[in-house]
User: Fold DUF3822 family protein from Sphingobacterium populi.
Amino acid sequence: MNYISTDFRIQHLSYYKLVIQAGHQEEVLMILDEHNTVQAYIRYAAANPTIDVTRLLALPFRHVSILIPQHSLTFVPAEAYQEEDEDIYGEYLVNKNDQDIYTVDMLRFGSHAIYQLDSLLYQRWFALFPDASYLPVFQVLFDLIPEQQAGPSTQLFVYEQSNYTHVILLKEGEFLFYNSFYVTNAEDLGYYVRRIMSDFAIDSLDEIKLYNLTRNHPLMTFVQHYSKQIDRAERNDADANTSIVHPSSPLFGILFQYEICE
Assistant:
C-alpha cells in the first residue's frame, strides 16, 4: 500500500525525517513527522521510481537515514579486538583494497563488526544525500533487538528483503550467529535454519522474531514448524537507548512494522 498523508506539508520539511530502505530491485521510502507519525510510505521498483518518489526525493530534507545492504562483513570478539589490527581484519573482507572499510562497536553482543557497504547503492544515494546517515542492514537488525530480559532461551531473528534473508541467532542473550542467504522458497530457508541449529546443537527454537516478514509470507510455512512462538520484532522510540544503538535504527523499526501491517 503506497500512501501520502493529506497532512503532509512541505512547510514542515525541516521537522520531517526521510527514511530509505535501499535495494537493487525494490526500495522503500518513508517520511515521518516530529511525532514519528508516517506522512508517506511508498514501495517502488528501484529502476523505475514513481513520479511521487521523484518529487519527494527532490525536496531538501534535513534529516535523512538510509539503510544500505552490506557487501562484506566479519565479526571480531570484543576481547580480541585491537584497533591497530584493523588492516588484518580487513583481509577477511571481499574487496579490502577496492572499497571503504567501516567498523562498529557491538559491545552489547561482545563483538566488533568490520564491514563494507554495497558500493553501487551507496554511491547512488550519496550523490543525492551526502549528509545522510548510512547504516548497514546488520547494524539496524542488531540495534532493534531489545536489551536482554527474562524470556525465551533461544531466539531467531529473521529479516527478508528482495529474496535475501538475514538470520540472527541468540541463546540466553548471547550472540551466536549472523549471516544472510539468498532464499527463494521455504525449502531454502529450511535448509539454512536446520544447518544453523545442527551446528549449534539446538533442538528447537523458543521464539522467532520477524522484522520484515509478514504472517502470510510463503516462508512462514517453514518458520511456523520451528518455533513455539512467532512474533513481530518491534521497538518503539521509548525503548531506544541511544547510548547503545544508532539513533536512526528505531526509525527503521517503524518502517519494518509498517510493512508488516500492510
